[in-house]
Automatic annotation (TrEMBL):
Residues 36-169 form the ABC-type transport auxiliary lipoprotein component domain. It comes from the Bacteria. It comes from Pseudomonas granadensis. This is Membrane integrity-associated transporter subunit PqiC. InterPro entries: ABC_trans_aux. PROSITE patterns: PROKAR_LIPOPROTEIN. It holds the Pfam family ABC_trans_aux.
Amino acid sequence: MALPLKLSVLAAIMLLGACRSDPISFHTLTPVHQGAGVSGADIAIESISVPPQVDRPQIVIREGNSGLAILETDWWGASLIDELRSALLDQLSNGAGQQRSSVRVDVQRFDSIPGQYALIDVKWRLRALGAPDAELLSCRSILQTPSGPSIEELVTAQQNNVKRLAAQITQAASSSRGCPAAG
């Protein structure tokens, strides 16, 4: 009777050990501020859209030419739309409360390839508050940052892309020269 009991206990322990899952890591597109990183503009965000394939809590990476992988243990702190909104608000607001422009952001591509690069392809429309739709400034930014092999490095590369996007939007809002040069 003791041997079957020992085998049952051993089997139960092994089964419980097999059910153990890796912990979930949460990531954000809002970087830690080091010093004063205020943009000098206060731009309202009208709307943000992203491709539905990547708008989820789990981080989605590209695999090969046509594959996508949904990472089950690496998640955004919120949906990708909410992460982008939070990161852009952080970069576009100086806290003065006087919003002079608004922007609509339409992400065409949000590619993350560990060990290669992070890419964000965005169409955005900037409008001075109170101006008619005929005075919209429509621009496109394709931003790519090299990335190391880890998810942490990939997220940091995407943070850099969002920071550069915010800088381009701020530059366009602060000047009358139209869309900023690519880069």
